[in-house]
């Protein structure tokens, strides 16, 4: 056997943290090297040094007479890593055979070693799986056969294979902490708004590359956080949203970032005025952290365009399975699920708050039309458009809703809500909120579900009964809710009329497009960016584009009165306080009636498909719906964080932080031939026939706008 003579490396202490020097950095003059813990990837730290003979002092190398003690120290945070790898190479200069043994010594004396049986094995590696928290020592025993004096070079590489880390900032789990808990932590000095903003920016940098939920970040976010931290110290918080970061869907106006609805035609467009709800959030002390991606023009571009796609923002992906994020507020739903902010804002015309909330295991409130102003929001169909919160908890949704409601002269519809809403929805967060409620449930709805979903449906019903609700079985709404599809006929004409008005009144005169026709023509000139076509826009541009055109009035009147009659008759006949549904089944008819609905997580079908419930109520019944939803949520706690389900979320390569600038992050798209824009003007009733002939009604049944 070759005589083993030891020559090791130097001592390096590696403190593994979430920020620090780049991977692979070293500081020879120091006894510590700091490297970032990049979750889900291998983080390497290399050291190369000249190895002279020396006296052995390490018990791991006792079979050789000479060596210094040569170790690397690394500290493993609890729950952060699934393996520690160490690799080494030893090369000598001069005669002799190089040989090497590696040993990893963990907390409590656990060890893992290379076997050292191969003569001349100058490369070795060791893996210790599932490392516990604590300090690890890596000992490299380098040998030169039959050589008493030599110079050798030892290269050590310590690798840390990560898993998704705890979602914490200042010891607070941002995936589970409510806005009041974040506010309390800032009050007692545990947390600052700056630290919270930095934590969300870090999460976006770490994860958003795989889900594409963020379109642009606020360049002033950190400065605003500093100012709000100072204000808290000087005069106290304005309220529960003081210093709390919120993300807005990119059709909600802001004056420090573009507002584009995901359209390449509106790229870079900074509106002349902020949306009313943006101002309300700022007045409450919230920080507008950025804008979320969305289905372009609220999912009204082309029937072949998938939910979550826009020509400007690319494709949003569901964080639970990388599939359909659902609805036009898809980026808000995904960003909420990933805790990229404390709360997000979505908008709905028919299902686009409820659908992404269900699909992404969020809480979403589709508000009564007129409860929250639409002023400053790029419109789709003003008769039915309404904004609302998408969050991880009912508590947060209630707080955000209280901040954004209010009568706004810029949106006359809000005048109808005066005196019909509370200034604060927090008193309705009651654990006994379901007690005494009468909840309508459709057995026919249940029969249409798969076996796994039926079990979740039954469990939700049983829980509501246990909470004191009376379950009333009725199929009336299920059998008649297709009346909500009449809304389809109203959208194209309203879209053209309202978008033309928005372009004229809310955008810079220098914007490249001034009308919907301009948008169609601009898109035709850029087929490489319009991946799926624009048939919905073309159909809309073929309408008169006049809100009070007689057929337009007839369609929206028939839509609203028909939908309300069906819902009101069902609720009155059965004495109901709300109507329960699995998922967003009642979204179309609820939207057509302009009535509110709340969505709450209720479990998972299979391993990764979120399942949720919705509760539909009468106009301005948001307090009751919040009561019911809070009681259900508190009793079930069915939501799981995406990283607990989808291990593919953790990046495998270094994640580049999105630039914190008021510019768009565009992604290249494929090309698609577009039909030429039509010049005829069709009445609103005629549009239904046009869309039916194109097969678009079938698409609308499963789409959310």
What's the mean pLDDT score?
81
What low-confidence regions span 5 or more consecutive residues with pLDDT below 50? 1-58, 64-70, 652-685, 692-701
- Name the overall outline: globular
Rounded to an integer, what's the Rg over CA atoms? 30 Å
Tally of individual helices: 20
Termini Cα gap: 76 Å
- Structural class, from helix and strand content? alpha+beta
Q: What is the strand content?
A: 15-25%
> Roughly how much helix do the residues carry, as a percent range?
25-40%
Got a strand count? Answer: 25
The largest beta-sheet arranges its strands as: 13-15-14-18-20-19-24-25-23-21-22
Largest sheet: 11 strands, mixed
List key phrases describing it.
705 residues, alpha+beta, 11-stranded mixed beta sheet, 6-stranded mixed beta sheet, globular, disordered N terminus
Q: What does this protein structure show overall?
A:
- Helix 12 packs across helix 14 (535-541).
- The protein starts with 11 loop residues before the first strand and ends with a helix.
- It is 30% helix and 21% strand.
- A hairpin with a 5-residue loop joins strand 6 and strand 7.
- The chain is globular, with a radius of gyration of 30 Å.
- By secondary structure, the chain is of the alpha+beta class.
- The protein is built from 20 helices and 25 strands.
In short:
By secondary structure, the protein is of the alpha+beta class.
Layout: helices, strands, pairs:
Blueprint: E1 12-17, E2 32-36, E3 42-51, E4 71-76, E5 81-93, E6 98-105, E7 111-113, E8 123-129, E9 134-144, E10 151-162, E11 168-169, E12 172-173, H1 179-187, H2 193-211, E13 214-217, H3 221-235, E14 245-249, H4 276-283, E15 287-292, H5 296-299, E16 309-310, E17 314-315, H6 330-337, E18 343-348, H7 354-359, E19 363-366, E20 386-391, H8 394-404, E21 438-441, H9 443-447, H10 451-466, E22 470-473, H11 476-480, H12 487-506, H13 516-524, H14 535-541, H15 550-574, E23 578-582, H16 587-593, E24 597-605, E25 609-616, H17 622-636, H18 642-645, H19 684-693, H20 696-702
Helix pairs in contact: 2-3, 12-14, 12-15, 12-19, 15-16
């Amino acid at each position: 056997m070759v005589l083993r003579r030891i020559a090791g490396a130097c001592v390096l202490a590696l403190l593994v943290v979430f920020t620090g020097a780049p991977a692979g950095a070293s500081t020879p003059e120091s006894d510590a090297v700091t490297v970032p813990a990049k979750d889900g990837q291998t983080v390497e730290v290399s050291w190369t040094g000249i190895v002279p003979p020396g006296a052995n002092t390490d018990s791991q190398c006792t079979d050789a007479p000479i060596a210094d003690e040569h170790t690397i120290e690394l500290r493993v945070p609890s729950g952060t890593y699934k393996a520690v790898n160490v690799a080494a190479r030893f090369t000598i200069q001069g005669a002799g055979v190089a040989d090497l043994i590696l040993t990893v010594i963990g907390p409590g004396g656990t060890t893992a070693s290379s076997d050292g049986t191969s003569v001349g094995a100058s490369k070795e590696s060791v893996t210790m799986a599932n490392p516990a928290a604590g300090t690890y020592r890596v000992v490299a025993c380098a040998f030169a056969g039959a050589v008493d004096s030599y110079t050798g070079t030892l290269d050590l590489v310590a690798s840390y294979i990560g898993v998704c880390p705890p979602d914490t900032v200042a010891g607070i789990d941002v995936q589970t902490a409510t806005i009041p808990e974040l506010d309390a932590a800032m009050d007692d000095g545990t947390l600052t708004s700056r630290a919270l903003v930095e934590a969300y920016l870090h999460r976006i940098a770490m994860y958003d590359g795989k889900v594409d939920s963020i379109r642009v970040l606020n360049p002033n976010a950190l400065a605003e956080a500093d100012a709000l931290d100072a204000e808290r110290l000087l005069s106290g918080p304005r309220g529960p949203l003081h210093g709390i970061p919120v993300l807005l869907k990119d059709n909600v106006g802001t004056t420090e970032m573009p507002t584009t609805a995901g359209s390449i035609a509106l790229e870079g467009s900074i509106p002349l005025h902020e949306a009313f709800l943006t101002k309300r959030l700022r007045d409450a002390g919230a920080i507008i952290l950025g804008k979320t991606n969305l289905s372009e023009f609220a999912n009204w571009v082309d029937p072949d365009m998938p939910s979550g796609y826009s020509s400007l923002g690319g494709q949003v992906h569901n964080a639970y399975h990388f599939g359909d994020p659902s609805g036009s507020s898809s980026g808000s739903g995904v960003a909420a699920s990933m805790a990229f902010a404390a709360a997000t804002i979505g908008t709905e015309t028919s299902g686009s708050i409820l659908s992404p909330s269900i699909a992404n295991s969020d809480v979403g409130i589709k508000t009564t039309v007129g409860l929250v102003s639409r002023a400053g929001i790029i419109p789709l169909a003003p008769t039915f458009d309404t904004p609302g919160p998408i969050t991880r908890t009912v508590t947060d949704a209630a707080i955000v809703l209280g901040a954004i409601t209010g009568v706004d002269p810029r949106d006359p519809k809000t005048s109808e809500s005066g005196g019909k809403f509370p200034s604060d929805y927090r008193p309705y967060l009651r654990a006994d909120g379901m007690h005494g409620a009468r909840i309508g449930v459709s057995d026919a709805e249940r029969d249409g579900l798969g076996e796994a979903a039926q079990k979740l449906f039954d469990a939700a019903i049983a829980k509501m009964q246990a909470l004191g609700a009376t379950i009333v079985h009725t199929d009336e709404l299920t059998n008649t809710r297709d009346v909500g599809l009449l809304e389809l006929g109203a959208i194209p004409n309203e879209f053209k009329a309202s978008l033309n008005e928005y372009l004229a009144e809310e955008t810079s005169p220098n914007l490249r497009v001034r009308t919907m026709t301009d948008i169609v023509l601009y898109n035709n000139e850029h087929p490489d960016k319009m991946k799926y076509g624009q048939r919905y826009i073309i159909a809309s541009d073929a309408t008169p584009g006049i809100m009070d055109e007689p057929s337009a009035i007839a369609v929206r009147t028939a839509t609203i009165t028909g939908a309300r009659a069906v819902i009101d008759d069902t609720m009155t006949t059965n004495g109901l306080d709300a109507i329960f549904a699995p998922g967003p089944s009642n979204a179309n008819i609820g939207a057509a009636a302009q009535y509110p609905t709340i969505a709450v997580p209720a479990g998972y079908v299979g391993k990764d498909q979120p399942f949720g419930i919705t509760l539909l109520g009468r106009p301005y019944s948001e307090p009751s719906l919040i009561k019911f939803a809070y009681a259900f949520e508190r009793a079930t706690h069915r939501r799981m964080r995406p990283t607990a389900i989808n291990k593919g979320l953790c990046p495998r390569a270094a994640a580049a932080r999105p630039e914190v600038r008021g510019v768009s992050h565009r992604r290249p798209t494929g090309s698609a031939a577009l039909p030429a824009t039509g010049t005829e003007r069709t009445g609103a009733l005629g549009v239904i026939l046009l869309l039916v002939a194109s097969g678009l009604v079938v698409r609308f049944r499963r789409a959310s706008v």
